């Protein structure tokens, strides 16, 4: 006997092979790739990246320059604190009395008891004799008042202290904020006054101490000495002293104000003798102005 026909088995194998071949011959689908970015986007990203690097580098350079030109420079090259020699002040001029007479005696006692004159000093003898003759002559005038003393008659009349001549300021003192600093002249260059380093600066062209008008003195508030760093702490009534080669000038604070750098008219206040102190404030964008009124002046005694 024979089994099932083999043709059916062969055909099933053939169909499986054909199906496998069909699968193998079918191309695989390509994976979906993201759309490539545009060239403009690439350029913007690159610009932002390099811009960030540039800003960071610039910040480091600016900070380094500020440190080197600021605190480091001040630490290495700042001059020592100035020492001011106290000048002698001429309060009054008293003429010298050459006669060796006792001022506590009366005119009558001087006439009755003339001073002794040593023969070794003829010049002094002549001076004493002249003074005695003057005392005897004056006795006729004061004879009606026996209490009149020789000191009252012979004492010279008090004279006013000499007034110092106008001159450039060389020193400034503000005890309330512990300012004791030299003053140098700040000249105008390219339309602006040059700032003084490690000192206060007299603004050339404003009035001189001793003249009518306003004296203007500036100073740094931070680096380069910072002589006016505490200028904003001044209050009305605080004393300010400015020295010149001829004398000392006393001012008293009246008011303060904040102005823009272009408002230079605040430095020209008319004919009254005043003093203006100015420094930078509000991130160096504005100026703090302190105005003081003149009080009195005293002349220095020349050596």
How would you summarize this macromolecular structure in one to three sentences?
The chain has helices at residues 6-25, 39-77, 107-112, 122-142, 150-154, and strands at 89-90, 169-174, 179-186, 188-189, 192-193, 200-203, 214-218, 239-244, 247-259, 274-281, 286-300. With 303 residues, it is α+β, with helices and mostly antiparallel strands. Among the domains are: 107-154, no CATH class; 162-300, Beta Barrel (Sortase, Chain: A), CATH 2.40.260.10.
**Rg from alpha-carbon coordinates:** 47 Å
CATH architecture of the domain at 162-300: Beta Barrel
Count of DSSP helices? 5
Mean pLDDT equals: 74
Question: What spatial form do the alpha-carbon principal axes imply?
Answer: rod-shaped
Distance between the termini: 158 Å
């Amino acid at each position: 006997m024979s089994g099932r026909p083999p043709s059916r088995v062969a055909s099933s194998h053939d169909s499986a092979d054909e199906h496998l071949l069909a699968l193998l011959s079918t191309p695989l689908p390509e994976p979906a790739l993201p759309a490539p970015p545009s060239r403009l986007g690439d350029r913007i990203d690159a610009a932002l990246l390099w811009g960030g690097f540039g800003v960071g580098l610039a910040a480091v350079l600016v900070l380094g320059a500020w440190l080197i030109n600021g605190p480091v420079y001040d630490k290495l090259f700042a001059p020592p604190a100035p020492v001011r020699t106290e000048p002698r002040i001429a309060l009054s001029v008293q003429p010298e009395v050459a006669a060796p007479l006792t001022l506590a005696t009366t005119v009558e006692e001087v006439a009755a008891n003339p001073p002794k004159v040593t023969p070794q000093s003829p010049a002094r003898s002549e001076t004493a004799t002249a003074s005695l003759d003057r005392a005897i002559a004056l006795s006729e005038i004061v004879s009606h008042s026996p209490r009149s003393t020789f000191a009252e008659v012979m004492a010279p009349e008090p004279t006013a202290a000499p007034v110092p001549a106008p001159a450039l300021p060389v020193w400034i003192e503000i005890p309330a904020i512990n300012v004791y600093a030299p003053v140098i002249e700040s000249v105008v260059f390219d339309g602006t006054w040059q700032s003084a380093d490690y000192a206060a600066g007299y603004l050339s062209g404003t009035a001189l101490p001793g003249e009518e008008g306003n004296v203007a003195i500036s100073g740094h508030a931070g680096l380069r000495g910072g002589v006016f760093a505490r200028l904003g702490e001044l209050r009305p009534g605080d004393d300010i002293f400015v020295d010149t080669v001829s004398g000392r000038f006393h001012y008293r604070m009246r008011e303060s104000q904040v102005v823009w750098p272009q408002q230079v008219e605040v430095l020209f206040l008319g004919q009254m003798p005043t003093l203006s102190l100015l420094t930078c404030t509000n991130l160096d964008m504005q100026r703090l102005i302190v105005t003081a009124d003149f009080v009195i002046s005293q002349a220095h005694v020349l050596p």
